[in-house]
Amino acid sequence: MRRWLRSSTFGFVVLVFLLQLASAAAILLTVRQMTAGEALRVARVHAMHLAATLPDPHDPVALAESITARLRADPGTDMVILLTDRAGRVRAGNLAAAPAGLPNNGRAHVLDLERIGGRRGPERVVVGAREMPDGGRLIVGEVIEDDFAPAVIVEDAMLGAALLALPLALLGAVVAARVVNARVARIAGTVQAVAAGDLTQRVPLAGANDAFETLARGVNAMLQRIETLVGELRLVTDGLAHDLRSPLTRLRATLDRATASTDDPVASAALDTVAVEADGLLRMLTTALEISRAEAGIGRAARSDTDVAALIEDLAELYGPLAEEQAQSLEWRATPGLHHRLHRELVGQALANLIDNALKYGRAGGVVTLSAVAAAEGGLELAVADAGAGIAPEDRAAALRRFGRLDPARQQEGAGLGLSLVAAVAGLHEGTMDLEDNRPGLRVVLHLP
Questions:
Q1: CA 125 to CA 34: how far, in whole Å?
Q2: Residue 189's Cα: distance from chain center in Å?
Q3: How many alpha carbons lie under 13 Å from residue 211 in its C-beta half-sphere?
């Protein structure tokens, strides 16, 4: 949950959700302002019309009589009017007193006032005040309580719509995130398949002219170029390796014949040395070819259900005597009845390489451990551990490179292809290989899904 909350998907959902809420709030406020503004505009027009139809303000007596007559003629009117003298005493109108703080500038103000003979309680009114020639005040306005009723209804309706929009906005955000994730997942799936060694995979195109389609076309063009270059490189290296094996094989046969036909001990020793180097070169070429074939995915079809426990036991019996000759011991453990679908020959060779390295770089009296256990979700974990000097974390990347040899290993026989072959075999099974600290020594783990 914590990882999901920090993901870009959650951020995208929140962003879309907030944008939809902001849009709904903006629409609500706009409609409210427009409705209320129209009600105020109409009330101001009515108030201005009322003020314009009153008698001459220079005759306060006639003005008061006209106001009184109008209120009597229309007792249910929405009119708000008040005429006071210089001392603030009421001359005529339907207000008990002038509102406090209302300036005499003629501008309209929205107030809550209680009229004489009006509804019970204060009402929302629009009023304006101006000073009369005799020093009194004339306050004119109109009740807008009923005019605001539609605005309140619209506001309530919009608020209900906004509450309904909350789950819809969340649903829309989730759907949008799923659509984006689905497009990204197709690209990621293709990239993962290519990383596993299948260079023929391509991102499926939907035919849309959008950013994802542009990205997919770019990725496909890149993958096509990579497949072409890797294919050419493999063709050259495989051809070179095959071409070199034939003369080396002939050279090895010639050395055997020369060794058998000479009686000179010095010459025999020299020929034996050359034969050992030729054998090492042949093994190097064979291993390089096997790595190339594994990285190319050749051998996936040869995988079958394998008794892993039996494979571990066979390797332990094969390398146990060799470990004793080097003053070390080989221990093994495997889950009884453990089966897994794998390429038995290649996995066996990979484990044999690891055991050979463990015996070669382990210390006298040390223990080499070979293990196989079932991992989570049906996976398989194979491990070989020794008690030697190990490999420092900063040097592990170099140790995994093809023909990569660290300084202590240069004093031993080898070509630096053992770990590369193990990594290639793990990749052939869509798995990984990790180098871990065995405290002391090195622990190499193959994770096969």
A1: 18
A2: 14
A3: 2
DSSP secondary structure of 148-162: THHHHHHHHHHHHHH
Q: 259: which 2 tokens?
A: 């060794």
**Strand order, beta sheet including 329-334:** 329-334, 367-374, 380-385, 442-448, 432-437
Structural domains for the chain: 11-150 (3.30.450), 211-295 (1.20.58), 302-448 (3.30.565.10)
Q: Which two tokens stand for residue 418?
A: 């053992």
Element (H, E) at 92: strand 90-93
Backbone angles phi, psi at 81, to 5 degrees: -150, 145
171-224 pLDDT per residue, tens: 777 787 788 788 888 888 888 888 766 778 888 887 777 777 888 888 889 988
Strands 123-131 and 339-342: unpaired
Q: At what angle do helices 308-325 and 344-361 cross, to 10 degrees?
A: 30
Task: Give the CA distances from residue 105 to residues 40, 129, 281, in Å, rounded to whole numbers and listed in that order.
Answer: 18, 6, 107
How do strand 304-307 and strand 339-342 relate by DSSP bridges? antiparallel
DSSP 103-158: -SS---EEEEE-BTTSSSS-EEEEEEEEE-TTS-EEEEEEE-TTTTHHHHHHHHHH
pTM of the shown model: 0.45
Q: How many CB atoms lie within 10 A of CB 280?
A: 13
User: CA 392, 397, 400, 402 torsion: positive or negative?
Assistant: negative
Q: Report the sign of the C-alpha dihedral through residues 76, 81, 87, 91, in that order.
A: negative
Strands 90-93 and 109-113: unpaired
